Amino acid sequence: MSNRPIYLDNHATTPVDERVLTAMLPYFTEHFGNPSSINHVYGWETEAAVKKSREILATAINATPEEIIFTSGATEANNLAIKGVAEAYFQKGQHIITVATEHSAVLDPCKYLQTLGFEITILPVQKDGLIDLNQLEKAFRSDTILVSVMAANNEIGVLQPLAEIGEMCRGRGVIFHSDAAQAIGKIPLDVQAMQIDLMSLTAHKVYGPKGIGALYVRRRNPRVQLAPQQHGGGHERGMRSGTLYTPQIVGFGKAVEVAVQVQATENQHLTQLRQRLWEQLSVLEGIYLNGHPTQRLAGNLNISVEGVDGAALMLGLQPIMAVSSGSACSSTTTAPSHVLTALGHSEQLAYASVRFGIGRFNTAEEIERVGQHVISTIQSLRKQKLIV
Ligand SMILES: *Cc1c(COP(=O)(O)O)cnc(C)c1O
Question: Aminotransferase class V domain: which residues (predicted)?
Answer without folding.
Answer: 6-370
